[in-house]
Structures are given as C-alpha cells and as structure tokens.
C-alpha cells in the first residue's frame, strides 16, 4: 500500500485489510450462505428421493442411480459455464442465472409426470447448482486476507445447516406427504436468492480487472460506511498497476513476465473499444491459462482433489442410506418383501446423525486451516478418512457402521471446506471463478460415477469392492495434495498475479 503522500495508491486488498470484517461482509455472508444452504438441500434430498421414486415407479437400481447422476452431469456443464459468465460479465450475473435455473427446475421436478421428465428436470437443477463456486468466490473477494480461512470455514457451515435441515425436512415430510412435496419444499430457499438479489453488490475485484475503477471505489465506499471504517489514503488502483509501481524500484525477475499478456508499457485497463472481443474470447483464453506451463501442475492436481472430494463426499451421503437399507437384504438368511417402516425410520435417523458430523468437521477445519496451512490440513484429513472407511469393507453392526460413517464424514467435510478455500487462492481474479468452476466440474464427474458405486455395487451385495474403491480414491486425493507446489496460508488475493510454482515468495504477472 502506498504511503500518505500525494501520489499514494492502494489496492482492494489494502482497503479490505484496513476496514476489516464488518457489517457489510456480514450481509454478504448471509446472502452467500443462503445460497450455500439451498445447494446443500438440493444435493441431500438425493438420498431420499431415489429410493422413494424407485419404490413408487418400480425402477431398477440403474435407473435409481441415474436420478443422482444426471444432477452431477448438469453440474459438470454448469460449473464451467457459470464460471466463464461470472469472470466475463460479473459475479452477480453468474449467480442470478443459476438461481433462476435451480429454482424453476427444482420446483417443476416436483410435478414431473414420469421418469423421463424427472431426469430432464433434475439435470437442469444440476446445471443451476453448478454455479455454486460463483457465490463462494464472490464472498471470498470481500474478505481480508488475514482471516480469510476462518471466515470461509464459517461460510461452509451454511452447507452443513442445509444438509441437517434437509434431513429433518425429509423425516417430517416423506412418511406422510411423499417425495414430491420434499422436492417442492426444498426448492424454496433458492427463491430467497432471487427476492434479495437487487440488494447484492458486485465484487470490487471484478470491477478492477475490467478497468472500472470508479465502480470498484463506489463499492469500497459503501463498505467503509457500513463498517464505520476509513479507506486508505491515496488512489485506488488494480493490483497490476500497483505491482508495476513497485517494480520501478527494483529489477523484475524473469519469472515475473512469464504469463504477461501485455507489454510493460501497455495499460492493463480494458478499454470499451476492445472489451467485447476480450469477453468473447474469455472462455477459451481462461482455459488455456489454467493449462499454461506455469499453472498446469496446480490445475491438474486440483482436479484430482476435487474429483476425490466429490466422489467420496456424495458417496458417503449415499452409502449412509444404502447401507441402512441393503445390509440386511444381502443377508441370505433374511426374507424381504420391501422396506419396513422401521427400516425407513432408521434411514432418516442415520442420515440425520451423519449429517451432524459436518459440524465437527467444520470446527476441525477452522481450527487448523490458518494454523498448519491448507495442504497439511487436507492431506491429514484425507488419510484419516481412509482409516475410518477401512473396517466398512466388511459387514459391521448398524451402530458401528453409523459411527464409522460419522467419522469419515467429519474428515471429508473438512477437506471439502479447505479445498474451496485453497482453490480460489491459487488463481487471479481474472480467471478465479473459471478456475474453481472447471475444477468443480471435474469434481462433478466423481459425483456422476459415485452413485454407480454406492448404489449399484451395494445393491449387488458387493460392499467390499465398493468400499475398496472409495479407499483408493480418497488415498489418491490425499497424495495429490502433498504435491501441490505452494501453500497459500495468509497470502493476499491478487487481481493479476498468482504464486509461482517454483517459489512461494515469487509472483507471476497475469
């Protein structure tokens, strides 16, 4: 940050650091958290709707799995699409479209007359849910660097609240009103995002990357008024300009220029004249930057971790319901004509209990993410998750099965929370939501595959093989974390730079 002289300058990070976390960020947290809870509810209901629809419409286990898999297929498309939209047209535009898509398709799926229409509408819900990373990136860009990890963990508690709320709602609604009412009622939290949308501000970091400094300053002034804190003295500039000013006092290293898209004497501001062509090419150029030699290692490792996280998290959610209803059906000494009311009650109770495991998972992540760092936090919890899953390769008493799933859910919730902190931190603002969105898309591939494992293999009485596959995926994800080239704990977000893979202390200009 510049001094108090006439030519002093400051960046968005400087301003946020000085003003701190206050009332403004609290309101942003409430809105983004509401979206996080709504997404969690739409995902958690898959544990209940699949078995209920299978029983009512006489579906095969493969058709039941498809009800879940098509949601992830839609998210695969949505995560990439909405990331590009938000990077080129603003965070607000990104999550507005996703909220409309999620609510409309979610509500209409409750009225689906047949299996085909239900599959189509749930796929559209997935397309909308794919915009989840946009809200998390939007919230992240208002948080000071010093306590960003802690506040992102707090943000993640809204997901847990959504899962617990959905499990409780299912327990109340499913036995009496059925799955259609659950689908309809679960779509309404997304409606609140649309109702309060007009009050949401755009990210000042986004404005800076587009050269709209006056609009960025206007947002910072609103933060200043609501938080009762003063802005730094001087003139607001983008990170790129600030770095160029600092470089005038020192010799830039060769690495500093590796990814620079413009010459040193070019203005980093996007002029109105070239803005249209820049936006048009934004999707392809952003993807190419993610796979550039300087970023490809981080990007590919991040994809492995997101795949492992999604596969294991949603797999554990589905395993909770499938192991509750299928263990006894695989017992050759038992005869079954269907799920008994007792079995259904056990299902709701088991899912509710394991959903509460996310609270200690969040507390664990909050306790260690800013102390031991992102990498060590994730790898440790991945490997502990493997330990909890190992006994489930063989049939266990129901109480022990629930306890082991509870422990595994704690760990995988913690890793999911930390990776959503780490991922936006390794990318610059100009491609941040695209980078996180693409990684999230890769994670959705894990979500598409996991129902075939959790549902298909368990239905076929192949529990040992199913758990072994989960073990392999979780272990590989934990190993991938160890190979991340740098740690991001305590580092500022940047508009136009990322950390060099070769050194945690060097920046690469973007």
How do you describe this structure in short?
With 510 residues, this protein is mostly helical. It has helices spanning 12-19, 23-44, 46-57, 61-89, 91-109, 115-129, 132-140, 148-173, 179-186, 188-195, 204-209, 213-227, 239-247, 272-280, 282-290, 296-326, 341-356, 358-368, 374-389, 398-425, 432-459, 463-482; strands spanning 9-10, 235-236, 497-499, 507-509.
List the keywords.
transport, transmembrane transporter activity, 510 residues, disordered C terminus, 4 strands, disordered N terminus, mainly alpha, two-stranded antiparallel ribbon
What does the model show?
There is one protein chain. This protein is mostly helical and 510 residues long. The protein contains 22 helices and four strands. It has helices at 12-19, 23-44, 46-57, 61-89, 91-109, 115-129, 132-140, 148-173, 179-186, 188-195, 204-209, 213-227, 239-247, 272-280, 282-290, 296-326, 341-356, 358-368, 374-389, 398-425, 432-459, 463-482; strands at 9-10, 235-236, 497-499, 507-509. Strands 1-2 form a two-stranded parallel sheet. A two-stranded antiparallel ribbon has the order 3-4. Strand 3 and strand 4 form a beta hairpin. The longest helix has 31 residues, at 296-326. Residues 1-5, 241-281, 333-343 and 496-510 have low confidence and may be disordered.
């Amino acid at each position: 940050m510049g001094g108090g002289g006439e030519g002093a300058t400051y960046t968005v990070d400087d301003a946020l650091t000085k003003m701190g976390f206050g009332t403004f960020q609290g309101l942003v947290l409430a809105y983004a958290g509401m979206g996080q809870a709504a997404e969690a509810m739409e995902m958690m209901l898959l544990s209940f709707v699949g078995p209920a629809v299978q029983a009512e419409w006489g579906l095969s286990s493969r058709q039941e799995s498809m009800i879940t898999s098509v949601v992830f297929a839609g998210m695969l498309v949505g995560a990439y699409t909405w990331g590009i939209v938000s990077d080129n047209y603003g965070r607000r535009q990104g999550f507005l479209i996703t909220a409309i898509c999620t609510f409309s398709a979610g509500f209409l799926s409750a009225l689906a007359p047949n299996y085909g229409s239900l599959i189509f509408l749930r796929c559209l819900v997935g397309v909308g849910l794919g915009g989840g990373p946009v809200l998390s990136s939007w919230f992240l860009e208002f948080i000071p660097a010093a306590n960003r990890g802690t506040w992102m963990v707090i943000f993640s508690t809204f997901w847990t609240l959504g899962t617990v709320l959905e499990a409780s709602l299912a327990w109340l609604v499913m036995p009496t009103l059925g799955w259609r009412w659950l689908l309809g009622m679960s779509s309404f939290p997304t409606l609140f995002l649309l109702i309060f949308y007009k009050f949401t501000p755009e990210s000042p970091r986004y404005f800076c990357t587009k050269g709209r400094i006056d609009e960025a300053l206007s947002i910072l002034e609103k933060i200043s008024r609501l938080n009762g804190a003063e802005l730094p003295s001087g003139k607001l500039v983008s990170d790129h300009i600030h770095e160029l000013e600092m470089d005038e006092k020192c010799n830039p290293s060769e690495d500093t220029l590796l990814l620079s898209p413009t010459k040193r004497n070019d203005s980093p501001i996007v002029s109105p004249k070239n803005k249209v062509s820049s936006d048009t090419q934004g999707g392809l150029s952003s993807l190419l930057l993610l796979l550039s030699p300087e970023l490809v290692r981080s990007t590919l490792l991040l994809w492995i971790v997101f795949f492992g996280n999604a596969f294991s998290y949603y797999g554990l959610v589905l395993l909770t319901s499938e192991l509750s209803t299928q263990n006894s059906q695989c017992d050759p000494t038992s005869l079954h004509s269907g799920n008994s009311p007792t079995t259904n009650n056990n299902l709701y109770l088991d899912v509710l209990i394991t959903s509460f495991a996310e609270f200690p998972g969040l507390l664990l992540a909050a306790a260690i993410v800013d102390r031991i760092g992102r990498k060590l936090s994730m790898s440790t919890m991945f490997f502990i998750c493997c330990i909890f899953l190992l006994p489930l390769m063989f049939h266990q008493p129901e109480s022990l099965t629930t306890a082991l799933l509870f422990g595994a859910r704690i760990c995988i919730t913690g890793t999911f929370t930390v990776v959503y902190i780490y991922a936006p931190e390794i990318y610059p603002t100009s491609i941040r939501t695209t980078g996180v969105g693409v990684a999230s898309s890769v994670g959705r591939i894990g979500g598409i595959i996991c129902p075939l494992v959790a549902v298909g293999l368990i239905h076929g009485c192949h529990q040992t093989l199913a758990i072994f596959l989960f073990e392999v995926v979780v272990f590989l994800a934990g190993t991938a974390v160890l190979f991340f080239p740098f740690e991001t704990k305590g580092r500022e977000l940047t508009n136009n730079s990322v950390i060099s893979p070769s050194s945690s202390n060097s920046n690469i200009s973007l």
